Amino acid sequence: MSATSPEARLAELGIALPDVAAPVAAYQPAVRSGDYVYTAGQLPFVDGALLATGKVGEGEGLVAPDVAAGLARTCALNALAAVRSLTGTLDGVRIVKVTGFVASDPTFTGQPGVLNGASTVLGDIFGDAGVHARSAVGVAVLPLDAPVEVELIAELAV
User: What is the pLDDT of residue 1?
Assistant: First the structure.
């Protein structure tokens, strides 16, 4: 991938970051500490509406893993919006760590594949600066019955 800046890559990819999602409880969407920005867990909100609810898995009444991967992508974009709300730009940002939570049917073990939705878009936007450590955790339930939640840690250029 070229050394194009993250802001230029967003434009090339046709991605417009959303407004920062309003917190659903007593926290901030992102906090800066030194050269790092830590985001709160971001749900798959678009224009203030949760895109889906329920558990992820295979079968009737469950959120399909490929749909959940798209939701994880949305969560990652919401997290980037939270970062940019503090930094003013994504240029000079490196993604260090992504943690994703997947509300999983008890038989579902494909959490890493779901989180690839977040990791892939971060790689598309940041190139080498988007290569990160990651945890993909299956959980019983998430806030508002969301299927996926993503948080990240970003390092700022000194």
Answer: 41
